[in-house]
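Residues pack. Consider this:
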Amino acid sequence: MYGFVGNSNGVGVWKSSNGSRMVCSRRPYRGMLQVRMAAEGGGEISFSNVEIEYYRPRVDDIRLDDEREKVEQGTVRELPLFPLGIVLNPGANTPLHIFEMRYRLLFNRIQEKDNMFGLIFYNKENNLVARVGCAALVTQYNPLDDGRLLVDNNGTKRFRVLRYLEEKPYIKAMVEFYDDEEPTEDISEVELNVWSKLQDVLRLSNKLYDKRQEFGERMTKVAPGDAEQDVEQADRRKKFSFSVNQMLDMTVLDQQLLLQTRSTSMRLKKQDSILDGARQYLAAQVTIKEALGKDKK
């Protein structure tokens, strides 16, 4: 049995008796389309033999032999970390409300430097911080009269924590930036499938909720067939996969797994599976809506 739930942000949520849901929303703060589908219960995504990599201070410290050289190259650097129970993807935007004194200090200090910090997933269930996070660039500061901050941030690139340098008043770590590995297989077909299904989901969502939403420029710039021809394909596919990742409302643990993987292929295949279920679900709901509409005439 399905029911429709709305909220004050104008977000519609179709919920079923088994807990699955589909949300199609436009976040007012970001002004960008979000097509979201969470697979829960029996529809949860399975990552066999893959675990989230966590970092335990001093126990899991890494010191690279060529660290000084990598610092000079810019692939290793010191970075202040902000642990949160969310996952940020490269290319994505996230607004933050800063109220703790130590993090007010963090953001005031980076404003005097390069406006960069690392957003890293904190798992409150096991009280551990993930080893992989995403560097973020603060694009807008809005200080409030009482000292709190509203900041807007764009994800830039992933990093892996090598070791903590300081833990008070906030964490400062030595991190190493990294990228996806070169694909060992042709993933053009699965990418096209993801893009086709994503467009179907948007079309069906608009039909179901009587909307006229479109993909934003950030998505269309990296989508297959729509991207500029001089964009290197492997890099474009990686950016496309992260753009799709940000639109899918998975569990935060699954989001972290897709962030930390170095395989664009794995990321796209998981997204293809999610979107396949989302498309089938929405198509069924549109059919029900049209049937109910005919009955009223």
